[in-house]
């Protein structure tokens, strides 16, 4: 009977997809169970290296002055050992003027071509201008216009660089974690990969995911590639991918914390995730074949691990398309034909449990995802790192953990929408009025280290 054959075919496809989906989830669960691993510490450096800070900005007059000024006023690093460059990209406001007033060197860059209206071209232009100055830098740090960093950030990155690290990512936290219930759930979701995934990868010798603000890159790399060689929507991720293929290993400097203004509404989340999803899916399509080959030829698990993690972009699309449609069809088909038991389905040649067992299985999966992959992840973050997240007490973030599953749904939906969109670099709504109080609380928590292992040195070489 053709209906049975169709059902069996679709069920087989669904089983294959669930298996593929399960592998990245299993990896994340393993990282959760490894949360007890000690934090990696880098030996205190004897030498202060010259730092170049680059900030791409598009109409950021609301926040750029505070961002730059705070670097000069708050960093414990010697002021004569770092320079700040702001690339005012197609700005129609006072971004460049305010950046200079705060102490930065501002490059004004305008290009009428809409294809260049993304952060990658601002970074490309900025590095070209910095190289043209002839100033010798040891490493660079890329920040966004709204970012603040903890007071020891440059010192901690300098320690890592002096230990041989060429590429590194910081711990990513939120400026506006406690702004409302949405930001609490959003912040817990976004910071999870820093504390849980980042620490596990570092301790297991797996490359860090350098895909956000605060990234450190040895300037020898910038000089070698002639500036910045990525112009995709998610240029930070592609830059990391290319450096992995060049043989560099990326690290996680956990005590260096960057605070960014996270989305506080569904609309802001959608705008952010449109860029992330659209860019990452293009990168997956481009780099999957070569990463699979590198995994085999170089015996380097990091390539496969990167693919498995970025597969969550595809999983979000499946969660919003195939999964709901298949299970609506599945339940409707079994119910309409009276296939309630396993015996009934087997009698007509259906290769799946009956309706009763299907409903039980679906319920168990949803319960596990809701409690473990949802609330459990949020509670784990609160238990481990509430101070770094800007909260004075753990209970201040409990509501965010309870709403964690809801935000996961929002995240999946917005990522799926982004997969089919063409995002642009637009002005972002900032929560400037909350930043000063929140950063003081969060910065105080970031230096309250409760698990200091012995200091370790690492000598990284190109593989």
Shape: elongated
CATH domain class of the domain at 38-264: Alpha Beta
Please report which band the strand proportion falls in: under 5%, 5-15%, 15-25%, 25-35%, 35-45% or over 45%: 5-15%
CATH topology of the domain at 38-264: Spore Coat Polysaccharide Biosynthesis Protein SpsA, Chain A
Most strands sheet: 8 strands, mixed
Rg calc = 24 Å
Mean pLDDT across all amino acids:
86
Strand-and-helix sequence, N→C? HEHEHEHEEHEHEHHEHHHHHHHHH
Q: Which regions have little confidence, pLDDT < 50, spanning 5+ residues?
A: 441-463
Brief summary:
The chain is an alpha/beta fold and 463 residues long. The chain is built from 17 helices and eight strands. The longest helix has 33 residues, at 266-298.
Give an overview in words.
The structure is a single chain. By secondary structure, the protein is α/β, with parallel strands linked by helices. 56% of the residues lie in helices and 11% in strands. The chain has helices at residues 2-33, 64-74, 95-102, 119-133, 153-162, 181-204, 219-224, 235-246, 266-298, 301-310, 312-320, 322-336, 342-347, 355-385, 398-402, 404-418, 432-446, and strands at residues 51-57, 82-89, 105-109, 139-142, 148-149, 167-174, 215-218, 250-260. β1, α2 (64-74) and β2 form a beta-alpha-beta unit. α1 (2-33) crosses α12 (322-336) and α8 runs parallel beside α9 (266-298). Residues 441-463 have low confidence and may be disordered.
């Amino acid at each position: 009977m053709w209906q049975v054959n169709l059902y069996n075919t679709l069920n087989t496809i669904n089983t294959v997809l669930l298996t593929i989906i399960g592998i990245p989830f299993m990896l994340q669960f393993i990282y959760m169970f490894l949360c007890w691993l000690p934090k990696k510490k880098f030996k205190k450096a004897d030498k202060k290296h010259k730092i170049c800070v680059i900030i791409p900005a598009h109409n950021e007059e609301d926040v750029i002055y505070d961002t730059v000024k705070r670097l000069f006023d708050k960093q414990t690093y010697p002021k004569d050992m770092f320079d700040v460059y702001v690339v005012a990209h197609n700005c129609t406001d006072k971004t460049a003027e305010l950046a200079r007033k705060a102490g930065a060197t501002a490059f004004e860059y305008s290009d009428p071509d809409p294809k260049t209206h993304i952060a990658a071209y601002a970074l490309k232009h900025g590095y070209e201008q910095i190289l043209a100055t002839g100033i010798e830098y040891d490493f660079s740090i890329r920040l966004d216009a709204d970012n603040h960093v903890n007071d020891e950030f440059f010192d901690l990155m300098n320690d890592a660089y002096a230990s041989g690290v060429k590429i590194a990512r910081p711990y990513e936290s939120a400026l506006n974690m406690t702004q409302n219930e949405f930001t609490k759930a959003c912040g817990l979701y976004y910071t999870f990969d820093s504390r849980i995934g980042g620490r596990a990868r570092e301790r297991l010798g797996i490359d860090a995911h350098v895909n956000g603000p605060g990234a450190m890159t040895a300037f020898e790399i910038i000089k070698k590639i002639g500036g910045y060689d990525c112009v995709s929507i998610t240029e930070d991720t592609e830059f990391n991918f290319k450096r992995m293929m060049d043989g560099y290993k990326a690290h996680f400097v956990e005590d260096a914390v960057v605070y960014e203004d996270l989305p506080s509404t569904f609309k802001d989340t959608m705008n952010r995730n449109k860029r992330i999803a659209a860019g990452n899916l293009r990168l997956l399509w481009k780099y999957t074949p070569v990463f699979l080959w590198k995994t085999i030829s170089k015996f380097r698990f990091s390539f496969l691990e990167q693919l498995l993690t970025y597969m969550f972009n595809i999983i979000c699309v499946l969660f919003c398309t195939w999964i709901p449609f298949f299970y609506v069809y599945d339940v409707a088909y079994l119910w309409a034909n009276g296939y309630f038991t396993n015996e009934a389905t087997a009698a007509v040649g259906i290769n799946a449990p009956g309706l009763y067992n299907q409903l039980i299985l679906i319920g168990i999966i949803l319960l596990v995802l809701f409690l473990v992959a949802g609330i459990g992840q949020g509670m784990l973050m609160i238990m481990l790192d509430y101070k770094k997240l800007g909260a004075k007490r753990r209970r201040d973030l409990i509501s965010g953990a309870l709403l964690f599953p809801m935000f996961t749904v929002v995240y999946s939906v917005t990522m799926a929408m982004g997969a089919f969109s063409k995002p642009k670099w637009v002005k972002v709504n900032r929560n400037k009025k909350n930043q000063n109080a929140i950063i003081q609380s969060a910065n105080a928590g970031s230096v309250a280290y409760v698990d200091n292992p012995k200091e370790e040195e690492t000598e990284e070489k190109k593989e």
